[in-house]
Batch of 2 targets.
Target 1
Amino acid sequence: PLYQKAEYLKSVPTLDLCPEEIVYEVAFAGRSNAGKSSALNVITSQKSLARTSKTPGRTQLINFFPVDETRALVDLPGYGFAKVNINTKRAWEAGLSEYVEKREQLKGLILLMDCRIPPTEIDLQMLDWTAEIGLPVHVLLTKADKLKKGPAKAQLMQLKKMLKAEYPHASAQLFSSLKKDGLDQVWQQLDTWMEY
Ligand code: GTP
Ligand code: MG
């Protein structure tokens, strides 16, 4: 309900242009097409707050969606999109790591991964960067509606085992934007990070 108030504020290409008035923010990261924008829309109960697309690489800027005067949700550019050239790709990755590592307002990272696709190199890199700076991560295994309950749970268990062993700063859950499954758990995580 709190997150229903989210409104689009602006999109910026780099850290130095991020809004200063925000005190608490939570960013949504993940490979292109993982379902970041869809998740944001469901979490805020809005149909088209964040743009979703069948074309990967749609979200190319850091997009700010304040919920109130001091709190914001942030949609980050999807990474790992093969169809952009290597320099563009490197620039994105540099911008992304700078934001994640230096943005003081950032209290937590929601990392989205398609439940059918194993973590990519950049997913693991995100987990490494955040571990280094002690930024907590909550992984959403997205598109859970694409798997049957048993296999979905097995994916979650496998991921949790890996996180426990290698990335204890990260937690995980199943999520489906399509079915709106897992919403309460995400809201709870956001509330904690935003100090609601
Ligand atoms: P970029 O902005 O390119 O980084 O992508 P994104 O991570 O924001 O993905 P987006 O939310 O645009 O979703 C990509 C595609 O996956 C769209 O076709 C969505 O409709 C679909 N999708 C997203 N979430 C779900 C889900 O929970 N279930 C199913 N079945 N499809 C989903
Ligand atoms: Mg997007």
Note: Residues 30, 32-38, 52-54, 56-59, 78, 142-143, 145-146, 176-178 surround guanosine-5'-triphosphate (ligand 1) (CB under 6 Å).
Target 2
Amino acid sequence: GRKLLMIPGPIEFEPEVLRAMGMATTSHIAPNFIEVFGNSLELMREVWQSPTGQPFIVAGTGTLAMDMAAANLIEQGDHVLVISSGYFGKRFKDILDRYGANTTILEAPIGEIVSVEAIENELKTGKYKALTITHVDTSTGILMHPKPIAQLAKKYGVLTILDGVCSVAGEEIKQDEWGIDMVLTGSQKAIGVPPGLALLMASQKAIDVFKNRQTPVASYYSDWGNWLPIMKAYEERKPSYFGTPAVNLIVALETSLKIICKEGMDNRVKRHQNLAKAFRAALASLNLEILPKSNQVAANTLTAAYYPKGIDGAALRAKIAEKNVIVAGGLLAEIKTSYFRIGHMGSVSPNDLVAVLSALECALLELGQPIESGISLQSFQNELMQTD
Ligand code: PMP
């Protein structure tokens, strides 16, 4: 049977988005495609809540979006503070190091966030040009609230770069209001488009920092100097070319952004919060412990939970897959085989999570776990009925 894809990206996509992708490919300078590209850039500002931002749509993955942020905003020797709550914080450090940044990493213990005090102590040194935050670290399911960190960064005149790969269009982001200089993502998560697009939104300050560079951008493909005129042209509904855009993916992107904006970002964030809260309650009823030490730091786009003691993780996931639900294993090297991850972002509905919980419960029962059949479904639905 058809399997329900409940990993933290790629996710289940709207049929309308997949149909849009299957349309005949046009020239990248066909008038209808120029319109689609221009609309997509404008719709991004709504989703990012950044009316003054400069959007970029480039073929590539979330990692390319991180690479572009580092390549364009950082010069050799610049000090950058990396705030890490898992695997993807370390990846940002690696990328920044590659471009010659002088990085300092503040790493939270597994399941925790870095304190605002620890961040301020670093920023006080006055040496930093930029800091990076992983909004949701997909390896740990940790949510780091960017707003207070962005406020601090502003106080110390430091650029804020947010890895929003697992948060944009799922978690609350108000880029302009919060004063974040760069928010980046990939298409395959809460944006709801198959893998292959790097999406970035730069503040005017970030664009100024780029324009005032002393040294050339070390990556040809990532150089905003090549992409800025293209984004401007498409927004002015004019033909242009640097690298061939991923035509079909961008048609799908426009479709998905329209669906997102029709729901409205406030409603969408609330839906993610309600579903995540109910899902955590359901896991708790199965005595499954989540990685985040508190619900305040738990992501609303995915949940990471430890396997019960004595259960073989691969066997559990195989049993869940037999029931046509796909969940993900662990990613963080230190504890890779002791936990699993369930994505619940994008167009996720209560039905999807009922299916996940049913498959998970049956798999646990088959492996001899002493749980009461139906308990997680009951917890999930009770919790959901209490929310508005
Ligand atoms: N950052 C975060 C938080 C992610 O979750 C991911 C993907 N799992 C990435 C960066 C990298 O994105 P991609 O795999 O699309 O290159």
Note: The radius of gyration is 21 Å.
